[in-house]
Amino acid sequence: MKKKIQNGVSILVMLILLFTVIPMGVMAENQVVNNDSQTVNATTVPNCTYRTHVENIGWQDWKSNGTMSGTSGQGLRLEGIEIKLNNQGYDLNVEYSTHIQNIGWQDFKSNGVMSGTSGQGLRLEAIKINLTGNDAELFDIYYRVHAQNVGWLDWASNGAESGTAGYGYRLEGIEIKIVPKGNPAPGATANPFKENIEAPYSPILQEYRTAEANGFSSEVLKSLPDVNKELYLSSYKTKLYYIVEDISGDSSPELVIAMYNPKYHNSVHPNDFQIYDVYRLNNGTTERIFDIYTMGYRAIYTICENQIIRCYGSGGISAHADTFYKLNENTTATVQTVKYEKPYYILNDAKNLNRTITKDAADKIINSYIPRSDLQWIEL
């Protein structure tokens, strides 16, 4: 009898293990623990569905989970997109904004509302997609686009820009996928967006090309408002060069126009380029930074390290000055000025107003500003 009881207990224990351990194992297979130690059931990751309106085709069927929507090899633009979620019981929504030819970024749309245009023949050029809601922190949304003349760009995620800017390239296809937060991306993520940083300055560059093609004649320069009129005074007519470079360190590059003069080479301007114009973007509008009356003709500007531009201006053998400007976003501040007024060297800065200093002290200040050696000038 005792043996029968022991056997019964053993069977009962086995049954308990069978109905507890095995289901727990099955459940574990269906769970993904993300980087924030939050658990998401892998069988209920939200399904993202999307469709695009394609040139000459119209609305395509709905696609999902990384399948391409759009076309390949047909040269057809995307004109609109709709995105929605099967959120599997999560508090989750999707919002998206598209950058449209001749319009720019539209306001965010959400949950199946069209972003783009209808009947206007305008291409989509870029897109941003983001998850919203209390459970958005549980997931990452990834997306990548196929752009004209570029091909597939890398994957962007969680509201980052995907596509191109400043090239006029159309989007031709898109893939979208949701994964548990912190899980690996579907592919490479280094280059999801390609921007033509020269685009805002294209009209200015074209004016300078026109000026150069006409020998910088004073009559032609009168019709070119963005060109430095002092160019017609130049005693040498050589090639123009330019750079589009983030001098100010605010991620918005400036445009610098210079003339190459192989005969001009001294300690003031060692790289043989005389700067004639500097532009920056201020809330999307181009503006000239420095007074061009003296630029190139009576003053020599040099781009230095640490957001500094040096201006060496000469008033003759008995007077000259070095002024150092710091570019910071949309402001230009004078840091220091070292003047020579025979026989004195004079320092002006925030702490010293018209203080006389020695020549050695003046040279030490001037030489502390190092010209940038990494600039790659481009022939206009």
UniProtKB/TrEMBL annotation:
Q: Which domain of life is it from?
A: Bacteria
Which InterPro entries does the protein's record reference? ChW
Q: From the Swiss-Prot or TrEMBL record, give the protein name.
A: Clostridial hydrophobic W
